[in-house]
Amino acid sequence: MIFSPGSRRLSALVLCLTAAFALSACAGSPGPAADSPRVQRPTPDAEFDYQIGGAYKPPPGVRAVARDRGDSPARGLYNVCYVNAFQAQPDALRWWHSHHDDLLLRDADGRLVIDEDWDEPLFDISTSAKRSRLADIVGGWIDGCADDGYQAVEPDNLDSYERSDGLLDSSDAVAFAQLITRRAHRAGLAAGQKNTADLLPEHRSIGFDFAVAEECGRYGECRGYASAYDDRVFAVEYREADFERACRAWGDRLSIVLRDRDVRPEGTKGHVRRAC
What integer pLDDT is reported at residue 10 of this predicted model? Predict the structure, then answer.
């Protein structure tokens, strides 16, 4: 999805301490992140708001929020930092061409492979060397999330291999995701699996700590995410019928929110936001 880069620094320590009263303490936790005592996994069924299209004041009762890495985290809440980790944002394409053109995926004719829904070129994660270089770049963004005071990171487009015209496969995505989660843990951040239910069997080997699942109610995937992550799931639905179905089945266990597809900020025409 398309959001502008940038960062505004807040005190990570203050935010971590205040968030601890809302959710689990900033201490070691079992699972993949146990080697980093600062990593804080989200609490199951914490009311959630998905604000990656623009930050606004969280509604009353919200205890966790996801925002684009260019926005500041919300004080006193559990904050998830959105990072476009597997694709290039269109407004940054000139930078990629100038500095790391070979890290953009191209077909046999030399044309960029594009995610047409968002007009985003895919990263070339087909080799260990390219994955390492990309992890250094994306890792810098993740470090920025930690410096800003976020508690977690949401690396988007894990499923980009499905749009690669066969040039990438799931093993490439798994290998790159492992690098990303390790970088997040070193920075003291929990790492969330964004969609891609097909890779749920790999969640432990990758090192994910929780999930952000778009339309798991619509596609009947909530059970898989809930089982894999012990209900540490932020579920986002975009259709009211799917939202109501998800709330009936999972509203007492998962953090479920209804949003408009453009995730518009509150006060903007077309903004929709409801929680179970």
Answer: 36
pLDDT computed for residue 38 by the predictor: 84
Mean pLDDT, contiguous 10-residue spans, the chain (276 residues): 37 38 37 62 96 97 98 98 97 95 97 95 98 98 98 98 97 98 97 98 98 98 98 98 98 97 97 97
Task: Please name the residue ranges forming H helices in the chain.
Answer: 12-22, 93-99, 128-148, 170-186, 203-206, 222-228, 240-250
Spatial contact of 267 and 252, defined as CB atoms under 8 Å apart = no
Angle (CA) 121-124-127 rounded to 5° is: 175
Q: Give the residue from 40, 53, 47 showing the smallest Cα distance to 2.
A: 53
State the Cα–Cα distance between residues 123 and 4, nearest whole angstrom: 18
**pTM here?**
0.86
Q: Give the neighbor-by-neighbor strand order of the sheet with 48-51.
A: 48-51, 64-68, 78-84, 152-156, 190-194, 210-214, 233-237, 255-259, 273-275
Q: Mapping DSSP to helix (H, G, I), strand (E, B) and coil, where does residue 206 land?
A: helix
Beta bridge partners of 83: 155
Buried b (16+ CB within 10 A) or exposed e, 198-217: ebbebbeebbbbbbbbbbbb
- Round to the nearest angstrom and report the end-to-end CA distance of the chain: 25
Q: How far apart are CA 89 and CA 100, in angstroms?
A: 14
Q: Which residues contact 202 (CB under 8 A, 6 or more apart)?
A: 170, 174
Contacts of residue 51, defined as CB under 8 A and 6 or more positions apart, other chains included, come to 58, 65, 66, 67, 68, 71, 263, 265
